[in-house]
Design goal:
By secondary structure, this protein is mostly beta strands. The chain has a domain of about 100 residues: Thrombin, subunit H. It contains one helix and 33 strands. A hairpin with a 5-residue loop joins strand 20 and strand 21.
Amino acid sequence: MRSVLQTIGLLFAVVLLAGCGIFSRDDGQIAPAELVEFTPTLEVEQLWSVSTGRGMSRSQPNLRPFYEGGRIWVGDHRGRVVAVSADSGRVERRFDTDIELSAGPVVQEGLILLGSFDGELVALDAESGEERWTAGLSSEVLSYPVLHEGVVVVRCVDGRIFGLDAENGRRLWIHDRSVPLLTLRGTSDPLARAGQVFIGYDDGMVIGLRVADGSVLWEQRVSEREGRTELERLADIDGPMAIVGTELYVVTYRGRMAGLALDSGRMQWVKDVSSHSGLSLRRTQLAASDRDDAVWLVDRRSGATLWRDEQLKRRQLTRPVFYGSQIVVVDKEGYLHFYDAGTGEFSARIRASRNRPSDAPLVVGNTLYLLDDDGTLSAWRAGPRD
């Protein structure tokens, strides 16, 4: 019964939050910000573009490009997995499976890890594409699994975390935590470090588990679920968290960005920022786009605001990513927006696609890779204008 209610709640959340403007703002009530004119200081060029398959589906899978071994790995909702040369864009491998993909691919230690809408985690051989093992889980997988110290850690939408033997998929442990009835569509990826794995939950809680046996090391609530209605009490942690040194950084949908001590979960600082897309980290800086699509750059040591820009509000931005001295976001119309990280001023803009981005751009070295909802993967590079 609880599983049925959670499923209803998840579907209800998608419908409600689409009306609230998280997934769609085409009702004309509040128009997206108009694109402002500026003098670009960067030249952006496309290196290559290739079709990788059927792209996304209306079920909103979590499919995004993954870099490993000089290749960009991409999956589509029909179960096709391709490996594209990061340099040339040439398709080097293609595996067609019968899996209705909901998350992936993750490529680690010779395995391709894929999550399914049917609640399975499938491991393929990265060289041959042959199935190595399949593990039945408790519900749909929307977060990316992580392989750490011989254990694959994967989270399901019902709140359960599984630890699986990377050799054969055998279940080693399970951690069960209930989720609220109403949540956003999505779950935060497990984040592993030094024998531990950290999970952000839909109720604003972060937990640390021991990878070897799934035992709880600590729990810390970042956001309180406050309000009179389930919609007002949304506090999801859905986007990527980040670790550097002895600190873990996280942002929640309703109201809080925080720095936590990695060993205990104790909060070092808290800041009023709301985001469902997570954050990016570079050295001493954190970047996030909030639920109104303002872009923030924050000092990770104190939580102090370095700059904030509202010129792209309501344009449904991805999570900002660091690219050299720049910060890059993509909007729902496929525009790549480059900010000078030092000043917060626009430095370039180019329309990379006519379709929505599947996720934030992937940065590898001096190249930026973008996958759109139609399954087109493209590579971009930016440099100073002559």
